UniProtKB/TrEMBL annotation:
Residues 347-570 form the Sieve element occlusion C-terminal domain. It comes from the Eukaryota. GO terms for biological process: phloem development. Residues 2-202 form the Sieve element occlusion N-terminal domain. This is Protein SIEVE ELEMENT OCCLUSION B-like isoform X2. The lineage of its organism: Eukaryota, Viridiplantae, Streptophyta, Embryophyta, Tracheophyta. InterPro entries: SEO_C, SEO_N, SEOA.
Length: 572
């Protein structure tokens, strides 16, 4: 900014000033050069432009002119009009340049084929003339204090000539923009159709051929994927919002498993957070020689054929390149490596083996190893989640008071709220929080998704006790209050929503009486049966795939639940 102001005020040759600015900005992209030059112009010469625009009709302009000792502002009215037209032309050109860079996918922009190569040259030309014009304007306005003899006609002629030149470049850039859009549209459609045919081959395709196509770098260095030949491959597909907790769980599964490799396909568009990409990539223990920018045709295939929208998912491929499972992630979350090779028959077999509602199935070693040990030791355990800070304080204090009165101890573990890690961070002080909160909720949602898929959309009723229990916890989390479940060993004996817990704990004298008579868990169960507390069931499910799990019935009254779609911003 200082360079622009000083050189222009001193009357230095504008071509020399332009080249000096370009040299200063040589490490930046052409689009960034333009933005910085316009910002410098605005910061340094906004005051002068106010004077030229407003003249003696604006009290602020008049006051500034008096303080700066700028005489006869009205003499610049004619020049100001022409400079205004030039500035508008520059804005149009800079806007067109920025849109061009944002709309043209980086994967195509890296190519040197026509018309991309021609457009690149025009972008450079547009950037140069934008900066050069800014320098010319700065020179015209910046010399105002020394130029009582400056010819207004000379300034007007220069502004008109520059405005014409800049407008012509804008029109030419728009022409190249249109040509590139047409070229890219055809290129992407051809590449997409080629990928569809490759994936639909009846005889299949070698996994290396598939990987080469999905991980193509365009003109960049090719990736080394020969090490993946003859192996099953799990495509992990996500944007950069995938959590480190999810990656940590997948790392552990991958390191413990055999027979498959994991390849991350990052779905990013245009400008992306390079630091976040490198952070995620470096945290992965599997194959990571992937490009940050995938072929747009690959992204189109992932979105249109595999229905990617936002949430991470995984596609499992055989060594022959055949898609064995298009939604493998819920199986991994639920069953771990036992789910391999992710077939429907395998899932049915796993459900038959583990149908009972047990805490040791709800909480695996990847969620919290210490909690698993407490289950084995037969300790009294309380899992609780959600709730306000006041509810958490009231519930934990009241529960510990009752247990202390009857000589019992409890291991209390807070599991937070689904998809709300910020909330857990707010209330984490002095709470024992489950080790992998994200995985806990992902497993619950995955269980419900897999079970409803296996039932092929049939209504879930009270005849499905296991999934009714899963639904209850998800429904508790969908409400505004908290919830809790109690067990001793692997068997879950009591669970309750937040209002029930509040009502029972508040009458700790009555609960103590039942606990002394029957033991804590049995007494709590008996006491709950006598409570008549209204219920409200809200079940929130993630969009794991394009399939809808069918009708749902309320776990308490049995009535069919209403279904709504909710769009949630996780940034808040």
């Amino acid at each position: 900014m200082i360079e622009l102001s000083c050189n222009c005020s001193e009357g230095e040759n504008t071509d020399a000033t332009t080249m000096k600015l370009l040299e200063m900005l040589k490490t930046y992209s052409w689009n960034t050069k333009v933005v910085l030059a316009l910002a410098a112009f605005t910061m340094n010469l906004g005051e002068s432009w106010l004077l030229l625009q407003r003249g003696n009709t604006n009290s602020l302009a008049t006051s500034v002119a008096f303080l700066r000792q700028v005489p006869e502002i009205d003499r610049f009215d004619l020049l100001g009009s022409e400079v205004g037209k030039l500035i508008q032309a520059i804005r149009n050109l800079a806007s067109c340049n920025a849109k061009f860079m944002m709309k043209v996918h980086p994967w195509y922009f890296s190519k040197d084929t026509s018309p991309i190569s021609e457009a690149k040259l025009e972008i450079i030309r547009a950037a140069y003339w934008t900066i050069h014009s800014v320098v010319q304007i700065a020179s015209l306005i910046g010399r105002r204090n020394k130029s009582t003899s400056l010819s207004m006609e000379t300034g007007k002629t220069l502004a008109i000539r520059l405005e014409t030149e800049v407008s012509q470049i804008h029109d030419l850039l728009m022409y190249h923009f249109k040509r590139c859009k047409e070229y890219i549209g055809k290129e992407m459609e051809d590449a997409y159709q080629s990928l569809v045919k490759l994936m639909q081959r009846p005889e299949g395709a070698d996994i290396v051929e598939i990987l080469n196509r999905f991980l193509s770098h365009g003109n960049m260095e090719k990736v080394d994927i020969e090490k993946l030949r003859s192996k099953h491959v799990l495509f992990l597909i996500s944007d950069l919002d995938i959590s480190l907790q999810e990656i940590t769980v997948l790392n552990e599964l991958y390191l413990k498993g055999e027979g498959y490799e994991v390849v991350w396909l990052p779905v990013v568009y245009g400008l992306y957070d390079k630091k976040k990409f490198v952070e995620l990539k470096s945290s992965m223990k599997w194959y990571t020689d992937m490009p940050a920018i995938l072929d747009p045709a690959v992204i189109k295939y992932i979105k249109e054929v595999w229905h990617f929208i936002k949430n991470p998912f995984a596609v499992f491929l055989t060594p022959e390149g055949k898609v064995a499972c298009q939604s493998a992630l819920p199986m991994l979350w639920t069953w771990g490596n036992e789910a391999v090779p992710f077939t429907a028959e395998k899932v049915k077999d796993l459900w038959r083996k583990r149908y009972d509602w047990r805490l040791d199935f709800l909480v695996d070693d990847l969620i919290d190893p210490e909690l698993r040990q407490w289950i084995v030791e037969g300790k009294l355990i309380c899992l609780y989640g959600g709730g306000s800070i006041d509810w958490i304080r009231e519930f934990t204090t009241g529960l510990k008071f009752v247990l202390a009165r009857i000589g019992e101890s409890v291991e209390m573990v807070y599991v937070g709220k689904n998809n709300d890690k910020d909330w857990t961070e707010k209330v984490i002080h002095n709470l024992r929080v489950i080790k992998s909160e994200r995985h806990f909720w992902a497993r619950l949602q995955s269980m419900l998704y897999l079970y409803t898929k296996m039932r092929q959309g049939k209504t879930l009723t009270k005849d499905d006790p296991f999934m009714q229990e899963v639904m209850k916890i998800l429904a508790y989390d969908g409400g505004d209050g908290g919830w809790a479940l109690f067990c001793k060993g692997p068997n879950v004996i009591v669970r309750m929503d937040g209002e029930t817990a509040r009502a029972i704990i508040s009458k700790h004298g009555d609960l103590e009486t039942y606990a002394r008579r029957h033991g804590f868990l049995e007494g709590l169960a008996y006491y709950m049966e006598e409570q008549d507390i209204p219920h409200s069931c809200v079940l929130k499910l993630p969009f794991i795939s394009s399939e809808v799990p069918g009708k749902m019935c309320c776990d308490q009254c049995g009535r069919e639940m209403e279904m709504h779609y909710t769009y949630r911003c996780r940034a808040m």
